[in-house]
Every structure is written in C-alpha cells, then in structure tokens.
Amino acid sequence: MISKKIIIMSGGSGGHVFPALTIAKFLIKMGWNVNWIGTKNNIEAEIIPKHGIKIHFIEIKGLRNASLKNLIFCPIYILKSFWKVKKIIKNWSPDIILGMGGYVSGPGGIAAWCSKIPFILHEQNKIAGLTNQWLSKISTKNMQAYSGSLKNAELVGNPICENIINIPSPKNRFKNREGPIRVLVVGGSQGASILNTILPEVACLLKEKIIVWHQSGNFEFKKTKKKYKQLGLNSSIIVSFITNIASAYEWADIIICRSGALTVSEISVVGLGAIFIPYPHKDKQQHKNAQELESIGAAKIIDQKYLNTTLIINIINQLNRETLLKMAIQSYSLGIRDSILKISEIIHDTINE
C-alpha cells in the first residue's frame, strides 16, 4: 500500500509549531509520509529535523510590526516562496496540505489552491491571525481550537501531547493531597520578567501557605533563583525550563501563567485552576483565549498593567484545596482531549471526498 503524503506548514513560534508536530507524529505512526515547510530562522528549523521530518525552508516575514525594508521586500518574499512551494508540490505530489498558522502558511496556501491540492487550515487562537483570516477564504476546510475564530470552521481544539492527555483527572489528583498549596509559575519558554519579579515576593509573604515551582526562562534564571534564595525560600523549585511539563501540571494545584493558545488548551485538558496574566498584545489575543475559562469560574485573568504582589496575594489567600478542586473540575469540563483524532479524521475525509 502506498503511503499518503501530507505537507504541514507551520513556523515562527512554539504555539504554532508544537501542535503541528503533535499532528505530524500521529500521522507518521499511521503510515503517512510527512514533509514540512518552515523558515530557517525560527524554532521549526531546530526542532523538526530532530524528529526525522524533512523540512523545506522558505524566506518569508510577517507584516505585523514589520520594518519599512521588510514591507518593501515583502511582495518579493511572497512571490519567491510561492514558486518554491509550487515546485515542491509539483515534484512531491502531496495528497493534502495542512496550514497550522503563522505567516509561513501564506505562500503555501496560495500555492496549494493554485495547484488544486486539498488545503485545510487550523487556527490555534481565539483571535485568528491575519494569514489564516485570508487563507480561510480559499481553503478546502477550516478547523479551530476555540469557537468563533474562523467562519465555517469545525471546532477541534488544539492537538495535545499524549503524556498530558493521560494525566489523571482532577478528582484523582487532588485525592488525599495535603500540605501547602502547590503553585506552578510558567512564563512561557522564554519566561516572563514580571512573574520573575513578583512571584518570589509572593512566595516569601505566603511561605506558610504555598510552595512554588517556577519556570523563569534562560535569560533571568540566575537572577530569579538568587532572589528566591535571598528570601530564604529553599523549598521552592526554580528552573530555566521544565522539560516534562506533564509532571509539573500533575504536581500543581494552580498555575500562574501567560495565556497562549496551547497553554490554555493544555490547562483545560489537564483540569487545572489558573491565574492568567495575558501578554499585552494589541488585539488581546491571549486575553480572549482565557475568557471562557474565567467565565465558568476556572480561572482569574489579570491584565499585566494591573499586576502587583498584593493582588496575587489577595487572590491566593481566598483559595483552599476545596476551591481549587472546583476550579480544576470546571477547567476539565472544557478540555478537548480527542483533538488529534478529530483533525486526522478531517484530513482523511477531505482527501476521500
């Protein structure tokens, strides 16, 4: 039997690349042949080849906050990338092309449409990116992680790693759990300076009530660890990056973090109460990602401009394990744990139509 071929287009940030990689690994297990289209200067260039996936590089830059030089050269980049993807399509003859967001999907989506290859889109955020907004008008099918992101899109959630999906439910995790409240602090893979500044002070003032596991990011790791040590918080766990995030989710009673699309999806799949500090994007995309969890009592959202030590302390002082379990159960109720299966079924259905 000849294996099916798919080109996955994704790049720029972990929020785009990791969900796409989860899908790629699943399809490879199912016997698919996967190629990837990305850029040389972003996270996909390092990660994708490590998984034995062939990656083709195109030169393309985003328009948002672009310099004058990039705006001038953008049409040239798009045209060159379009012809490169068209050539890849002609030489490799994929059965389908999947765009997982980021500006890298733009030229490839147009090339797929021109080549009459089935082309499907997945939008990870509540607020769709510009590239996906445009491409959704010419794509064969659209998928979304959050309702209302794209018109005529099927709700499928974000693809989540199996080790996160397999974490026990909140009721099982919280059973017989005692001691200080376990606070997981995650500022994204690069950390968040404001959390690195405030959380050591919070941990010091609440040292009898909480214990902290803090991902600081590489840049401020030494400074953050030193601050915890100076405050005598020797039981706190301070790391630059949490390699096994599933173990951290399973350990935690509550998480304080940004509200990127993948993080919010993972939290609801696990079932975990949260205090979200959205990154202050102009379009408030991270704020929008977290709103549904807040609306059902599973989370609190604090805009970064209002964040301070006293506010965090006041919120945590109102919490106990009974309250945290209720928040976790509410969060768990929104989790889409079969996203990979939903997406793979749409891929199969699209090429068989």
Question: Any key phrases for this structure?
Answer:
seven-stranded parallel β-sheet, Rossmann fold, 16% strand, 353 residues, alpha/beta, elongated
Summary?
The protein has 353 residues and is α/β, with parallel strands linked by helices. Helix content is 45%, strand content 16%. Helix 3 packs across helix 4.
Write the layout of secondary structure elements.
Elements lengths: L4 E5 L4 H16 L3 E6 L4 H5 L6 E4 L10 H25 L3 E4 L5 H10 L4 E5 L6 H6 L5 E4 L8 E3 L6 H4 L4 H5 L6 E6 L6 H13 L4 E6 L5 H10 L6 E3 L5 H7 L2 E4 L3 H10 L2 E4 L8 H11 L3 E3 L7 H9 L3 H13 L5 H14 L1
Parallel strand pairs: 1-2, 1-4, 2-3, 4-5, 5-6, 6-7, 8-9, 8-11, 9-10, 11-12, 12-13
Helix pairs in contact: 3-4, 8-13, 11-14
